[in-house]
Every structure is written in C-alpha cells, then in structure tokens.
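Quick entry, no commentary yet.
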Amino acid sequence: MSITITLTDQDKSILRTAAYGAVSLLAAAGAPHKAVTHASIVLTSATGLVGHVLAAKSRDIHLPGKSVAELADQVLPSLTAAMGVLGEQYPGEVDNFRGTVLVAVEAVVGSGKGGPSPAVVVMARKIAAALDAA
C-alpha cells in the first residue's frame, strides 16, 4: 500500500526543516556527534506520511545562522508551523510527527555517560514547547 502525499512542496519543506532543524539545534547546543547521528536515524526511520516526507531526498532544508539563537529563531517557529500544517491537512499525522521529533530529541538527551549538558536540556524543552504551541 502506498501513501498519497498531497502536501505542497513548501509544506514538505516546513516539515523537513522543522524535524532536521531540531536535530541541528541540539547539535549547535553542544550535543555529542554520536547522539546527533542517532537522532538523525530516528528521523529517517519514521513511518507514515511523516516518514515519507522526512526520508525524501531533497535540498530544501536551509538552516542559515551563525549562532544558536539565529538557528532557534528559524527552527522553533518551523516546528510550530509543521504541527499546524499537519493539523489542518493530516490530523492523524500530528502525533506521528510530534512523537518522531521527540524520540529524536530523546536520542540526544538520553545518550552519553554524564547526561546531557544543561544547554542541550534547555534546548530539548524549547523544542517540546514549540511542538506543543500549535
């Protein structure tokens, strides 16, 4: 069975930017490389419509910024926008997207011997809040 995706290219870009941006934001906050790799694997392992969108080969993820703050200014609103897009067009995929991103975040927060740095913990909370803001 295949899934018919009727999202616009812009909507797909919002979802990819939000999900991969969340992982990039955690990396920028100081998450270990290995943990970030695990989080990326979570995103590419997603299922359903979200999985199809996140697994697609694309060059539409643009995350400019020279600081964590600049990256957060783009990623956090993208997370909220992604939840809104799915809520309007595919309400059944809202929990899938949120859950996928949060498992990716947990892959970072739950890794490492000494636990995550305070900056990574704070960023994880901000990502969760952005997902819940829609």
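second:
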Amino acid sequence: MRATTQFPEATKRERIAVNTKELQAMLGCGRKTAVDIGEQAGAKIQIGRRVLWNPIVVKEYIAQISL
C-alpha cells in the first residue's frame, strides 16, 4: 500500500475531512469509540476502501448530544 502524503500542521485546522487516527485525536478516545461516534453522527465519507470523517458534522453531533 502506498503511503499517504502528510501536510503541515497549519492546514489541519482547515481540513474538511480527517482520517480515523485524526478523529481519535480530535475526540480523545480509542478507535472503536471514535468510529462509533462518527457513524452515529453520520459523518462517514467512504471513497473506495478509504474512510474519512467530516469533523464539522462530528462537532455538531457532540454539541447536540451534550445538551
């Protein structure tokens, strides 16, 4: 499998999609919990075998369930 290109830290704030590891870091939890939250939020973006997550949708979902 080919390695993906990594971009500088400055652009991480502006991303419209993150991978699972970045979703884990964003939520501060393990892989299973991050995937569960992402799926419940409806933030999953699947392109072929690659899975990305929409962080804006995840943030809105967390804000909604935390009320």
